[in-house]
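Standup notes
- DV: blocked on the single-chain target, sequence here:
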Amino acid sequence: WMLMGTLCGQLSSLSFVLDIAYRSGTKGILVCMSSLAMSTLGGFVACFFMLKIRNSWQVLRFGMTWLLAFGACFLAMGASGVRPPLFAFVFCVSAYIFGLNVIMGPLRSVLAEPFGDAAGIANGFAMMFADPSGAVLGIIFTWALEQSGLSSWMVALGFTAMLHQAIFWGLVGLRAEEDPIFALPSKASGASSAEEGAKAKGVAK
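- DV (later): unblocked, structure below
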């Protein structure tokens, strides 16, 4: 729920950032938002090709590391009061959104894996919290911008990014793919069936 919430909150407040902090006109905001749309598409395309050569956990770890780097960048710039040029700011935001969309599919896959036939319910339950959390984060980000300007907005985004990292790694650990809970039910049932078949053959002999 934090993944989609952070994305929605970021996008909902970004036009205010461009208007208030950078005095961008309508055309400038349109160009910047178009670059974010391209980064979203780029994230999905990158995910598609990465999953052809890596498994979901490897792509997910790569994406989370990517998000950690840019989330820390926002937090550092905001805390130090650095005001990046518009191009650098839009690049960092685009890169963060790129990373969010790289992990979108793998995260849904990993989330649903332990639930077997109930995977759809698990994903639906997680998506249920996306819109409310996005609305709350959008309000917080916009409030931070109006209170103290761009630095506060970046601190709020960076803090949310770090909280996302802490919750994710705290729950799944660094080697979560080795946990038996993430073994596919079909494989587990197939293995048990094979063992039972072997035992039955041994008894028959």
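- Follow-up: The chain is about 80% helix and 0% strand.
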